[in-house]
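About this split. The held-out portion is used to measure sequence recovery: a designer receives only the structure tokens and must propose an amino acid at every position. Recovery is the fraction of positions where the proposal matches the reference. Here is one held-out target exactly as it appears in the evaluation file.
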């Protein structure tokens, strides 16, 4: 026991000093250098000032306003009552303010600090410190090192300082430099970060939260049955609500990484920037916004909004019926993406291309270009003058209203047109196509390098062959049939048909198979030098004098004016 400055202590083992004076320096007092523990006794009413030594000290104050400094060593310091000042000094110290409004400085190394009750100021200084505010209104500062700050109850202010800090329970939390983590459970909690102070994350149980400036990450850790609405900021954000039932996420500006719920229906908006968005399970709505976005809906019937031709949609087999809504002018679906339907969303005209799988592609009321590629595709032009090409596969194409153009790649392609759907043209790229079952197409053009067979509709057709030896059949209606080049066989079918030949194309070997007097006509270009003669056996041969070749018409005779008409090339062009 020490009562006055003349007293001293000696030690040969683990010793304690019971202090009955106001000031004591364990490092200077005779013999006290070897004493580890000191306890300020109750009758030191005005508080004691004690400095520790180089050993691992245990220091306990009393109800007064004590100043306890641990010195070097791994110290344990307890303020107990009163408004105390505690300092750990060097070493890994444990400091507890207990009752009263205390000031605690952990000092160097890795310290653990408890404020206790009262309005405390707690400083970690250097080292990786753990700081607990306790009750009432505290100030916690981690300073250097990777610190853990927990405000406890009351209105607490925290500053992590430099290092990768964790801050929890504070009403006003600033991370400082380093990659900091904030735990937020109340709307009143404020989180602040300055520019370029690290990669910082907010972990919250709140169902609505907007990231403050210069914060990068937001993670939901609350009730799994909740609906979560999170919004990012202008930074490159990581936002995750995987632990929720339903998520509404807005990335905002920046290159964002958004993660919806594991199984629920999510609404995910990337905003500007090149975003990465995951929907996981459930029927998700994903809008990457402007920028070149990566969108992965996962299982469920997902809907995507595409704003850039460089947006990427990732879908695999058996993951639901997925739809991509195209807002920009051009979009080509990735070859590996198993999205079932592509939809134009404006009337400005779109160029939309599918991939190797069976796609449904829908235009709107602009002049859309729809390309199916492989697979059995379903293309719908709707309004406007559209171009539809199913590609390989057995495709169904509906042009809708307007003067539409079709590209036929397979004899099993099907065209569906309204009777009031405009003047429509089909280009035949394969060697055979019949318009039986594909009525209301007005013009058919062979566009391959093969011998092509075309059977028209029962309406009024304009049929143009290619350069090879084609078989062209008008079927019903008043048809205009032009063989093009090559030795063609042409059938008008029923109706008043016109068979058209021009001397600037080689027609040698062409045959008109079913000419009917009084109904059909042979149309020759007026620039040619034509002659014809009945050959008997119900045939007439028409001969061009300047390279057009010879044409056989199966008829008893032909008469100029009633059966044969001469027209200019420009007039003929209007017939086909």
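Reference sequence for scoring:
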């Amino acid at each position: 026991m020490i009562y006055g400055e003349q007293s001293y202590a000696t030690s040969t083992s683990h010793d304690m000093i019971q202090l009955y004076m106001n000031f004591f320096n364990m490092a200077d007092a005779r013999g006290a250098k070897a004493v580890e523990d000191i306890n300020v006794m109750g009758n030191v009413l005005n508080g004691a000032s004690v400095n520790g030594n180089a050993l691992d000290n245990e220091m306990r104050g009393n109800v007064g306003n004590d100043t306890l400094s641990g010195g070097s060593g791994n110290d344990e310091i307890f303020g107990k009552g009163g408004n105390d000042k505690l300092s750990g000094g060097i070493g890994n110290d444990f400091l507890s303010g207990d009752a009263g409004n205390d000031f605690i400085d952990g000092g160097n190394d890795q310290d653990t600090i408890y404020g206790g009750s009262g309005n405390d100021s707690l400083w970690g200084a250097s080292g990786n410190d753990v700081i607990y505010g306790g009750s009432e209104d505290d100030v916690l500062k981690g300073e250097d090192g990777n610190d853990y700050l927990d405000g406890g109850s009351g209105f607490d202010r925290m500053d992590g300082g430099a290092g990768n800090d964790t801050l929890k329970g504070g009403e006003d939390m600033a991370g400082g430099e380093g990659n900091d983590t904030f735990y937020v459970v109340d709307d009143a909690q404020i989180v602040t970060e300055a520019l370029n102070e690290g990669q910082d994350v907010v972990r919250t149980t709140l169902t609505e939260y907007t990231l403050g400036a210069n914060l990068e990450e937001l993670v939901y850790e609350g009730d799994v049955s909740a609906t979560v609405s999170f919004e990012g900021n202008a930074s490159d954000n990581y936002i995750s609500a995987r632990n929720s039932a339903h998520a509404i996420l807005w990335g905002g500006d920046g290159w964002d990484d958004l993660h919806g719920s594991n199984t629920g229906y999510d609404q995910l908006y990337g905003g500007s920037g090149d975003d990465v968005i995951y929907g996981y399970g459930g029927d998700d709505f994903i809008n990457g916004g402007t920028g070149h976005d990566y969108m992965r809906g996962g299982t469920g019937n997902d809907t995507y909004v595409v704003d850039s031709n460089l947006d990427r949609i990732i879908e695999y087999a058996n993951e639901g019926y997925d739809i991509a809504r195209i807002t920009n002018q051009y979009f080509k679906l990735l070859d590996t993406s198993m999205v079932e339907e592509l939809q134009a969303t404006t009337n400005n005209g779109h160029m939309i291309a599918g991939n190797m799988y069976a796609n449904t592609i829908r235009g709107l009321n602009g002049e859309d270009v729809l390309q199916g590629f492989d697979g059995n595709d379903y293309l719908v032009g709707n309004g406007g003058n559209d171009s539809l090409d199913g590609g390989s596969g057995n495709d169904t194409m509906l042009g809708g209203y307007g003067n539409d153009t079709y590209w036929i790649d397979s004899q099993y392609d099907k065209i569906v047109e309204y009777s009031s759907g405009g003047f429509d043209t089909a280009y035949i790229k394969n060697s055979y196509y019949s318009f039986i079952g594909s009525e209301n197409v007005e013009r058919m053009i062979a566009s391959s390098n093969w011998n092509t067979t075309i059977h028209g509709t029962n309406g009024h057709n304009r049929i143009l062959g290619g350069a090879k030896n084609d078989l062209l059949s008008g079927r019903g209606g008043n048809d205009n049939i032009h063989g093009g080049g090559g030795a063609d066989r042409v059938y008008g079918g029923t109706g008043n048909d016109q068979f058209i030949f021009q001397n600037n194309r080689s027609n040698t070997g062409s045959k008109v198979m079913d000419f009917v007097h009084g109904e059909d006509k042979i149309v020759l270009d007026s620039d040619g030098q034509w002659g014809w003669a009945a050959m008997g056996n119900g045939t007439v041969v028409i001969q061009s004098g300047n390279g057009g070749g010879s044409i056989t018409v199966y008829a008893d005779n032909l008469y100029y004016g009633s059966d044969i008409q001469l027209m200019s090339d420009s007039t003929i062009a209007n017939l086909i």
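Annotator remark: The two ends are 121 Å apart (CA to CA).
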